[in-house]
Amino acid sequence: MGKKLALWAALAVGIAAGLAFGFRGLLRELVVAPLVRLWWLMDSLPQGLVWLVAVAVGALAGLRALGSMPRAERPRPQEPRPPVSQLIELVRLIRRAEYSPAARRELGRRLSRTAVGIRARREGVPPRQAWADLRAGRWPQEEELLLVLVPPRFPWPARTGQNYLESLSRAVELLSLKARGGIREAR
């Protein structure tokens, strides 16, 4: 296969050389003479002007090429997933909170909002004051509830004698009692 290709290439070069030799007068008049005249013209122009024209032509060619490129199609929107119910989302968060400090903090934030709302409504304390007391650790009095509302980074404190889910369950019970007025804070 390689020898055949080499023979065909040699034949093509030979034919091209023969044609060029045979039509050398025609080639000189149609190709070489105009190229030489163009070269003389370019050589006679100031260098700055030549570069300016070359850059302008290049920029126009580039812009034209960019304009003719097919535009990227926007990805088709996927069918929207059905909204996850808040209950399912909360269940997932509680499951993650068993081992994730970030999930514990998120649960703590959610329960803190509820706890501050309960305290503001039941005790007439302004919400800003309730938040300040919670952040300072002055409220709530129950350590179990405070540990869930403002969880430590890691690991879950062993001083409660419970795992996180048990402490969470107890904290929700305490909040429920506070909401019903069963536990009153001493001011």
Protein topology:
Layout: H1 2-22, H2 24-44, H3 47-68, H4 86-97, H5 101-123, H6 127-136, H7 143-149, H8 164-180
Task: Give me a quick take on this structure.
The protein has 187 residues and is mostly helical. The chain contains eight helices and no strands.
How many DSSP helices?
8
Instruction: Give the biggest sheet.
Output: none
- Arithmetic mean of pLDDT: 85
Strand content: under 5%
Query: Could you state the order of secondary-structure elements as H and E?
Result: HHHHHHHH
Low-pLDDT windows of residues = none
Which structural category fits the helices and strands? mainly alpha
Number-wise, the strands total: 0
Q: Quote the distance from N terminus to C terminus.
A: 100 Å
User: What is the helix content?
Assistant: over 70%
Radius of gyration, in Å, reads: 42 Å
Shape: elongated
Explain how this protein is built.
The protein has eight helices and no strands. The model has no long low-confidence stretch (mean pLDDT 85). With 187 residues, it is mostly helical. The relative contact order is 0.06. It has a domain of 80 residues. It is elongated.
What descriptive keywords fit this protein?
single chain, 187 residues, mainly alpha, 71% helix
